[in-house]
Structures are given as structure tokens and as C-alpha cells.
Automatic annotation (TrEMBL), chains A, B:
<dbReference type="Pfam" id="PF00293">
    <property type="entry name" value="NUDIX"/>
</dbReference>
<keyword id="KW-0378">Hydrolase</keyword>
<dbReference type="InterPro" id="IPR029401">
    <property type="entry name" value="Nudix_N"/>
</dbReference>
<protein>
    <submittedName>
        <fullName>NUDIX hydrolase</fullName>
    </submittedName>
</protein>
<dbReference type="Pfam" id="PF14803">
    <property type="entry name" value="Zn_ribbon_Nudix"/>
</dbReference>
<dbReference type="InterPro" id="IPR015797">
    <property type="entry name" value="NUDIX_hydrolase-like_dom_sf"/>
</dbReference>
<dbReference type="GO" id="GO:0016787">
    <property type="term" value="F:hydrolase activity"/>
</dbReference>
<dbReference type="InterPro" id="IPR000086">
    <property type="entry name" value="NUDIX_hydrolase_dom"/>
</dbReference>
<feature type="domain" description="Nudix hydrolase">
    <location>
        <begin position="37"/>
        <end position="162"/>
    </location>
</feature>
<feature type="region of interest" description="Disordered">
    <location>
        <begin position="1"/>
        <end position="22"/>
    </location>
</feature>
Amino acid sequence: MSDSEQPTVGPRHYQIPEGDDRERLTCPDCGFIAYENPRIVVGVVARAEDERILLCRRAIPPRIGYWTLPAGYMELGETAETGARREAWEEARAQLKLTGLLAVYSLARIHQVQLIYRAVLTDPHVEAGPESQSVGLFHYSELPWDELAFPTVRWALEQDHQAHMQGHGEAFANPTAEED
Amino acid sequence: MSDSEQPTVGPRHYQIPEGDDRERLTCPDCGFIAYENPRIVVGVVARAEDERILLCRRAIPPRIGYWTLPAGYMELGETAETGARREAWEEARAQLKLTGLLAVYSLARIHQVQLIYRAVLTDPHVEAGPESQSVGLFHYSELPWDELAFPTVRWALEQDHQAHMQGHGEAFANPTAEED
Ligand SMILES: [Zn+2]
Ligand SMILES: [Zn+2]
């Protein structure tokens, strides 16, 4: 895309393709249709052995300096679970074992679906990766509620706490004998 | 994209952008980076009051004539739940109430994440939409196992049955007071 907001090559006009029922971003030169889809964010609520919860203080926009869960865009070629573990490593050098899916959040306005997993740290050592200013482990009662980066971080922390207190069934995933 | 496999305008070269750690599809003319992400499929295992399960016989490729669950790509601007209900309407004219998330399947090789919900039909009337040859309601013991379109359809039917027999906790979703 050029410096202007309006690209001058590639998909840049919205029109309804034949046989479709909604507008798609289309290239007027070659007819290529860029189907835009919601993006998947994978993240984790990871607890240490003493039940403290891992948070990262953001070193990148938006919300620099605020606390968030290890999370980021799922990449091609990985499973959601692999992506969640990758983000925990990239942002907090955390090694962990996933224990199930906590929640699915649909953020329709920003075109995101977040898949948040529960996890336990398998190594107590954590440290800031390149996208974090620092990392911290917090007991639930000591969480920095006023300095959380996004509403979904609060949702996940509260729901993880509820699951922790009351038990929580998990959604299924790929059958273990049949991982893709 | 032109008739050839290789597009000649727009993003068409793989290279690693500065500060990134993997190859992205980039336009050599203007530098536009097309971030490719896994696509989200939303679907449902919907049961009638008599516990029969709704399937659709596909009228479109791939796997024309085989049975599948109502499912399709999540669109921008909808939640996963709204998308699952939309697909049930489009493919089977089914009206339903979602009862929770059954499973998340990662199909890394085909760049898909499937979110499969459980549901009950709120109206017994169903009929084929434009992408279905026909629709059917099947007791679990009578399901057309040899004519299922995809492995994930079998996974979902088996896991829904397991959930139905043994109970099944659900993952959380957006808190109801805070839907996006
Ligand atoms: Zn074009
Ligand atoms: Zn370009």
C-alpha cells in the first residue's frame, strides 16, 4: 500500500462477486478477490506452582506499559495450542503445559476471535521477551486490575479464577490420535 | 489473480519483513505485506427435541453428495456464535439455540481453525438451503458414518455423543453483559 490511504494496485474496490451475498475487496485490474476474515488471537492464563498468574507489561503499542496475558496472532501452519505456547515463549520466555481451553471471545468490531487457554508453568523461570518491558507473577488478589491493557484480559482473569474455584469442563480439541 | 498460478500484480513474493521472523507474501511494487492467517470455520451439532442430529448433504465441492454439519467461514463483523447460527440457517434453514462450545479443531495443514458449537433446534422444520442437496435428521445409531464429508464431522459427532452421555463443561465466551 502506498503512503496514501487508498491503495492504487491490488484489491481496492468493494463489490459483491457473482453468486456471493456481500461486498468483498476486489482488484479492478485482475478481478482478484481478497476475502477478509476474522483473525485468531491465541493466548494463555498460565499459573505457577504457587498459583500466581503470569502477566507481561507491554513494550509495544497499543497500551504500552499496561499488563496483558501472553497472546498474539496465530500463524499459518501451527495449531491453536502450539500458537499459545509460542506466544508464551516469545513474550515471557515461559515454558508451559496447556490444561484446556478457557474461553473463546469474539471481538466483532475489531475482527478478532481470541482463543484463551489455561496452562501451568513447567519451569518457574520467566523473563521478558522483546515485546515485553517486564513480566510478573501475581496472586489473584494482587492482580494490577487498574493497569490491564484490554477488557479481554480482565474477562480471562476473572473466568480463570471462577474455573479455578468451581471447576470447569473443557471443550474438546483434535482427538489425540488424529492431530493434524 | 490471472489465469496463471502466479499473480503478476499485488502481493506475490515471499520475503521476511524487517523486524519479523518469517516469510510474508509481499508486493514487490509497493511493499504491501499480505499477512495470511488461519481462517475460522464455525459450525454446529444441532439436535432436535427427539435427539436426532441435523446433517446436510453437500451440493457444492469438495465432497459433493456427502453429509456434513452446517458449517462455513466466519464473516467479518459477526461473533462466532452468530456465524454458527447463520450457517445453520443458510445450509439447512434451521433455527436453533446454541448451548455451548463443543470443540476447537486446528487443521494446520489447510490453515483452518474450526469452532463447533452444540445446539438445539427451536423449530422442527428444516430444509435444504442453496449449498445443500438435502438435509436429514439422524439418531446417533443411524448416522451415515460411511458418507461423512470430512474427518472433523466424525470427530464432532463422536465428541457430541460423548458430551451427551457423560456431560460436558463448556468453555466461557464473552461475558453476557459485555458482548462486543
Ligand atoms: Zn489485480
Ligand atoms: Zn503492491
